[in-house]
Design goal:
Largest sheet: 9 strands, mixed
Number of strands: 16
Radius of gyration: 29 Å
Strand content: 5-15%
Structural class: alpha/beta
Helix content: 40-55%
Distance between the termini: 58 Å
Amino acid sequence: MNPRPRKKQNRIVDHEFLEGIEAALQGGRRVRRRVDGGGWLHLERLLPFLIVVRRSPLTEDDGFASLVTAEGSVLLAPDTPGDQRWISQVVETVGRLAVEAFGTFLVLEVWQGEPEGEDNPVDRRPGFRVFHRQGSGAGATADAIADSLTSLRVHRQLAKVAVATRARVARTGTTAVIGPSVQKRIGAQLVGIEVRPIHRNHENGELFPVVLRAMRRGFSRALRRALFDFVRTRSTHRPEHFHVLGRRAIVKAVWKVDGQLAAIASQYDFLMNVTPANAGPAWNTFRRDQGAVPRLRYRPLPFDPALLKRDLYQIPVERVEDPALGLLFRQKQAEMDRQLTMLVDRNTHRFLPGSMALYGVLPDRVIATARQILREVGPSKREEPSGGRIGAEAFRDLALKELEAYAPHWPGYEPSVTIRNDIASGLMVSRGVLCIGEDTQIPAKRVDALLQHEVGTHVLTYHNASAQPFQQLRVGLAGYDVLQEGLAVFAEYLVGGLTRSRLRVLAGRVLAVDAMLRGADFLRTYELLTEAHDFDAKTAFSITLRVHRGGGLTKDAFYLKGLMDVLAHLKAGGQLHPLYVGKIATDHIPIVEELHWRGVLREPPALPRFLDAPPVQARLERAREGLQVLDLLPR
């Protein structure tokens, strides 16, 4: 959305105003000021460029200016003859300082083009014309900008880009932001970008906000890459990454939306509410009655999903100007909507389609890998626990000791582990707290692996996220479960605790979900695991219950996919430590990296303690060289 000026903040551009800009930039301070007539100047710091949008009546209310409002050096100005003088004064003041500091300055004006022909609802191909003045020396810069824009896609349609010269670089009917004499005097280049208005119907003025959002995200990345090329090749400035050029300051609308989403997320625990509260008794009944389908019971919902949905869609996510953050918030809003619908649909035929919509389609490559694991890794009695088992209380003590080692990294944190009678035998992390089923018995050889799975991954990422400015990283970005579980299983491998039986369980979950999606009921899924894949009765029951809970939960199939994603990430040269910043999905890694480069996110305050061990470093290096899932098993 376009910034809405507030009268009491508006300033007339005079000598004092310009001196204030100069003093702020020279002192390394941010400039964020509104000007009479609807002008708005945002300078994160002094940079070798300034992006200008003059808002004509055509662009006043359709959000066009939002294409650039997430950038680090922006001037929005009214497109009226009476304002031309102060616009030039502001540009010249910033440009003179930039040339002194960096040796060059680029003025990049962006304007909305005129519609061409009849409006075609199908043809929403992005289009750009990049202009420079013949003989101005900006030809190479214009070519580089055009080259960056050619990679932009909106709804799978690739941009059409052309470069042209003009005697006056400006929208038709207007004067240039700065004239040739000023350009020459301060040593600046002027380039213009005319944008095809695919985000609206020019015949009736109807807006297409989804198209505009896609344009904004793609245009921002393309523009930043082009500016990075200009800065690195034409100036003395040496930013490490193109995202460094983006905006660092976060406006109040972002904090408000983030807090409202987190407040709603805190009112329900999706996984806890779709997990049967009688899993232990259900197994006893199943075993006693020789395969009678158990009756699963769930916790009553202490909230009204319809009311939470009402509050959810009153959150003004559309007010978030930043393309990266806006995308994360919209994804989370949609995910919470699906989760609340699924909680209403527990134990109905509608639950499974909701699960498929929430977690996505199970890829064929994951099913093929699961089949390969169960074909090549048979059950082995040699993996029966040696060294005995430990119970819930002993595991709680070990977990508390592990958590105490992390406590200094998280100010104000007090380690907490609970033993519960409503999650059967097993482990679960809920809002940063490790929960242990009271009947849990863990093989001694698996203790360290499970500690690093639950504490060194799930608890760690929760409390690491608490140190970040956005609560969404603690709540969990949309779809975070897949990468989070894959990272946790990878931790088991790194500490040498990923066993053959554990890998078989992960593969069994995949095939159980696949069978359920093909129509298998509880008993048929159980029989598939016991008869076709030689799982023991209790393990097969546990897998089947997890898969069929709620009416069909596909989540467990994605543990294996998450592990495969982590291996692919490392093989492609990706780093491990950004994955511990909070609860994120694989698709969010580039966004997290962007926010880190922009200074919005901090480094994770803690990394898993086990990473420093030499055997772990050796295994990690092997994974970086490229491993398949079966390669993770001990030889």
